[in-house]
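subagent[fold] <- orchestrator: predict structure for attached chain, return tokens only, no commentary.
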Amino acid sequence: MIPKVITVSRATEINDVGSRIVDAYNNTSLSSDAYLAGLMTELGNMLALLIAAIKRIKIASELEEQDELRDDAMRALYYLILGFLHHPDAAVKQAAERIFKVIEHYGLSMIDESYSSESSLIDSLLLDLEGSNLQADIAALSGCAELIAALKTAEDNFEATRLAYEEGKAAEATLQNATALKRKVAGVINKKLVIYLRAMVQVDTETYGSFGGTVAEIIASNNENVKRRSKTVKLVE
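subagent[fold] -> orchestrator:
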């Protein structure tokens, strides 16, 4: 018998199951079945929305990662200059003092600020460090120019990801979230497709047997993976 998709499947897993079912259907000659064709269209449309919702979640995660990377870049620059303050060469030490005075004006605590505040502080710091009066000092400290460039790159990458994130958030009010869409996709599969195929395989095995078997294998494979990480499972009815 064709199983139902387990409800604790993740959004990405439900998306994978649905996508594989649609692909399998497209390789059949069942397009003359109007009801099944309608189900596949409905499923495909929902999957498109689910993929978009999953993408928004992914971008939010990437934004956090990019923030961590720029924090690391800021720490690296801060501690590099801090170390040069104890350099035995007086000229190097003095160069470090002048640069550190600029960095300390903003403080390492900037990495604990909100996304917007931290971006403003980093942009202002980079602008100050670009001043012509500091270029000789930066050149005198090995690795300083490279870490400033790394900080700028990290900030640019963060802002690019943030823009994509905010564009997604702007559409959030009119789009359903991944959890809600996951339930709807699972509902179409379990309450409509699986029920229909169970009946049609019994009525006309020759026509529907192959596709029904493929759908059963796709769902069973997913359910087995879910069961490996969850002792308690429940079917979507």
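orchestrator: received. Logging for downstream: Helices lie at 11-26, 34-84, 90-106, 115-129, 135-140, 144-172, 178-203, 205-229. The two ends are 16 Å apart (CA to CA).
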